[in-house]
Automatic annotation (TrEMBL):
Annotated NCBIfam families: FrucBisAld_I
Gene Ontology molecular function terms on file: fructose-bisphosphate aldolase activity
Coiled coil ranges: none
Protein family (similarity comment): Belongs to the class I fructose-bisphosphate aldolase family.
Name listed for the protein in its UniProt record: fructose-bisphosphate aldolase
Keywords: Glycolysis, Lyase
Pathway annotation: Carbohydrate degradation; glycolysis; D-glyceraldehyde 3-phosphate and glycerone phosphate from D-glucose: step 4/4
Length: 332
């Protein structure tokens, strides 16, 4: 099982490829569909995900796809289950297994990810359905008083317990501790919050005896808050991000796949390109790739708008963005 997980982790961060995060909850995708005038139903969600997964040649740029619980149970119009469709393309199917966010009691403004109850049974079911890796997301807010240490530790503990259960069941865990872009904080505040978050995460993973060699880290880039008057350029983002990672992430981790976190497709690709260029200069020990959702999907969704006649154009827009992100992995 260990050798299989090592091979899966290596495939997820294969050179020139990254991950498509297509694991939006029904509530989240409803908001995104509404913004382009599409009603969110089981059928429209299936049609949209099929559009992405059947885009011709997407496997040239995408190594794995993170699915939602509904999506892993769906099939193409021709009846091919989505995990089977992806596997036939050489793309690894994965699954989001957390149950979303709740407020952390007595810590205003901070949240905790639920979903550990019943997780073992869900992991076994997902593996039988074809999943080969999983994902759990924690969110960390930043302000003049946040994050607090109890919130960091609560989320790190949950990520570690999830990761251990995944490895027991032969699934590679993606651990996603996202320091949010929401707010007016500067890049230094993001750096401090990200460093503290990742320190707590890897200490918890070690306590729970999780094998670093068989997991993928999905972190935020180190960025100023979306409302900060001064937004850092790609070179500063790259410098701060790599400085933070080198302080906190063990060299044994087989790869890092950055989330886009609300960045536009061009901004996310520009920052990823700069990060990989700097990584080549300073000798970072891990492959650095992407695990994007909105940065790959916002444009295609706006073109599609639920209309079958827009399908090919939407697929091309998706491929264009995937190609851009894949080029950034190579620093080009």
């Amino acid at each position: 099982m260990a050798s299989e997980m090592a091979a899966i982790a290596a495939q997820l961060v294969a050179p020139g490829k990254g991950l498509l995060a297509a694991d939006e909850s029904n509530r989240t995708i409803e908001k995104r569909f509404r913004s382009v005038g599409v009603e969110s139903t089981e059928a429209t969600r299936r049609d949209y995900r099929e559009l992405l997964f059947t885009a011709p040649g997407m496997e040239q740029y995408i190594s794995g796809v993170i699915l939602f619980d509904e999506t892993i149970r769906q099939a193409t119009a021709d009846g091919v289950p989505f995990p089977e469709l992806l596997a036939a393309k050489g793309v690894l199917p994965g699954i989001k297994v957390d149950k979303g966010l709740v407020d952390l009691p007595f810590f205003p403004g901070e949240r905790f990810t639920q979903g550990l109850d019943g997780l073992e049974e869900r992991l076994e079911d997902y593996r039988q359905r074809g999943a080969r890796f999983a994902k759990w997301r924690a969110v960390i807010a930043v302000s003049d008083r946040l994050p607090t240490l109890p919130a960091l530790r609560a989320n790190a503990e949950a990520l570690a317990r999830y990761a251990g259960l995944c490895q027991v069941h032969g699934l590679v865990p993606i651990v996603e501790p996202e320091v949010l872009m929401d707010g007016s904080h500067d890049i230094e505040a993001c750096f401090q919050a990200t460093e503290a978050t990742q320190h707590e995460l890897f200490e918890a993973l070690a306590r729970y005896r999780v094998a670093f060699e068989h997991l993928i880290l999905k972190p935020n880039m180190v960025l100023a808050g979306a409302d900060c008057p001064r937004q850092a350029g790609p070179e500063e983002v790259a410098e701060k991000t790599l400085q933070c990672l080198k302080r906190t992430v063990p060299a044994a981790v087989p790869g890092i796949a950055f989330l886009s976190g609300g960045q536009s497709d061009t901004t996310a690709a520009a920052n990823l390109k700069a990060i990989n260029q700097r990584a080549a200069q300073v000798g970072a020990p891990w492959p650095l790739t992407f695990s994007f959702s909105r940065a790959l999907q916002a444009g295609p969704m706006a073109i599609w708008r639920g209309q079958a006649e827009n399908r090919a154009a939407a697929q091309q827009a998706f491929l264009d963005r995937a190609r851009l992100a894949a080029a950034a992995v190579a620093g080009g």
